[in-house]
Amino acid sequence: MNAESLWFTQSAVSAQAFLPPGDNVAGLLGMAVIGGQALACGPAGPVPLQSVATPLLGTDALQVESWGVSAACRQGTFQDVRYAASANLLFGVVQLDEADVATSAGDAPALQQIAERAYRQIFALLAQEACPYLWRVWNYVPDINRIDQGLERYRQFNIGRHQAFCAFERPVDASPAACALGVAAGPLSIAFLAARTPARQIENPRQVSAFVYPAEYGPRSPTFTRAALARAGEQSILLISGTASIVGHQTMHQGDVAEQTRESMRNISVLLAEANRLAGASLFALDGLVYRVYIRHADDLDLVRQTLAGIIGSSAVLTFVQADICRADLLVEIEAHGFHLPG
To answer: Is 333 a catalytic residue?
Structure first.
């Protein structure tokens, strides 16, 4: 079995101190920079870099996250996508601005159009690179809950994404782990991790699968799986989608951020148990995951942090980000990932 494995690091830097890496960083697949508006469009450079232009909570720093492999990488550009690939894995970033779309009466909304364009480019790149399996996607949508042309912008995004899945005949029940969060402004920003080998989709028995949500949530359902269990060489990788206070398909504990946090963690606990069951061993534990916690209202930070400390302890790796959640009645969303390498 190929020994190539995936790694992840994160560090805090000031906006003034951050410099994008050059083209000779061994094994670096891609990066995310989170915090404020300083890098709203992402600095130019050879390494795929997603700029999440929304505030980190509890710090004035930027957070720099890096994904890489224990092997050589090559970097490239495909249409609007900047990517890096190793023998088995590929990381890419595409950012598109609605202002670049000319619309007239009767046209689909600009956000729907660029969502479809972005995903069509992603799928075409993956086909070109013979790296067809999308493991994880991070979507950041400006003004995600606003009603525009009679439809919430998150639902517009879902229509565009779904149309690209259909155009490339990709089954929605084999969707990647994903999140879709709202930022105040900037481009539609999408980062993704793909591979030559498939991940195992994990659904939550407490929830209706997102891709079969009833029509009340929009003309097209969200296209993602609740989590994915992947392999890179001997390494097992758990990728948990953005997870919120939803049971069945309904939002629970409206207006209560502490209970929404607890319900989100109940859902993550179920996904973790499902992953360990599929793996045939207890590879992952709640306190061993890396978490990104999205909070709608910055003033809720202390309560969310205290609630999580009571569930997973104070030593867990957590990043708190202010962002709008895909439903207006959701106050918090939590994503996570973890790695296990034998020995």
So the answer is: yes
